[in-house]
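## retry 2 of 3
previous attempt timed out at serialization; input unchanged, resubmitting
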Amino acid sequence: MAVKITIPSIGESISEVTLASWTVSEGDYVNEGDIICEIESDKATVEMPAEQSGVIKFLVEEGSDLPIGAEIAELDTDAAPAASAPKAEAPATSAPVATSAAAPTGGDKNYPSPAARKILEEKGVDASSVAGSGKDGRITKSDAMSASAAKPAASAPKAAPAQTPKMSANFSRVQNVEKMTRLRKTIANRLTEAKNSTAMLTTFNEVDMHNVMQLRKKYKDAFAAKHDIGLGFMSFFTKACTIALKEFPQVNAQINGEDIIFHDYADVGVAVSTPKGLVVPVVRNAESLSLADIEREIKRLAIKGRDGKLTVDEMQGGTFTITNGGVFGSMLSTPIINIPQSAILGMHNIVERPVAINGQVVVHPVMYLALSYDHRIIDGRESVGFLKLVKDLIEDPSRMLLDI
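## retry succeeded, writing output
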């Protein structure tokens, strides 16, 4: 019996997706629960499992834009598993080699999906050197994308004679055209909308990181031993922002038509850079979390973002966003508001600078902060006051613990 496979609903606001890649080959026998393809929406990439077992036939190609409910493949549930054929040739000495080299069904440890295998072959990476994060240790497409070639240098000497056209290669004018991913198109559209639909303004300040760095240095080992998580700066800044958001609720509000929606909670989005683009997973009720809880949640969301496994629910509904360009070496920037939110805090790199302390010039680690905000709802008093309070809390982190 032929069973149709259709695109499932993956979010209330999502009406169209892209079939990013097939993870099986046409004609493969797939078991119920096997991942057959990756679906890319505006906000996330999700893996799609087979609901029944059978031989698969593709109805659409990779890269196709499809509405929710579209038919993408069909399964012949009456077909027998192809794995039964090699058993008849068991006496042949070469049969085991052929089976291990071409078995299409997943499940074996370190066995790549077809999409992952293609990427690994292009990189020259041995699949046995890659740790799979998929079901039963299967190597996924994201595993392959993050893998690095370990021993391509061994073949470099053989290719030495072919390096004569090196000069011409330096002056190549080849153009490579790639289709924008759905995520990249969404990022582009939302950033343009934010610039065009808000009265965006940015205010700046600098924060002396000396005290918080000394506090972290003193307690980071004990913190890690007790909570089994590292103590970073993001938890301090997130906690400081939640306190400042209570003091200046306009910064945590958003415009809805002719109304202003105020939130008595702080769902803080944390911008995460992934191989496919920038995503902003949300730390829910960050105001009620401890530093350890914040660190755990940020780490969990960052790992899921890196692996392309964030859900739509984990990336929507934030009330305020923090982005840290400092991890890439940025000294100063004007971050763009993550609409429909009204403000975003930009963190930057930490650089030793001369600072006046009690009339004496000393060298302290300093970070520049930037707060971009929608001037339609947030005035200068609120924006500057918010950023100044964040600065004061970071420079005297004991205030966060004492709630003063």
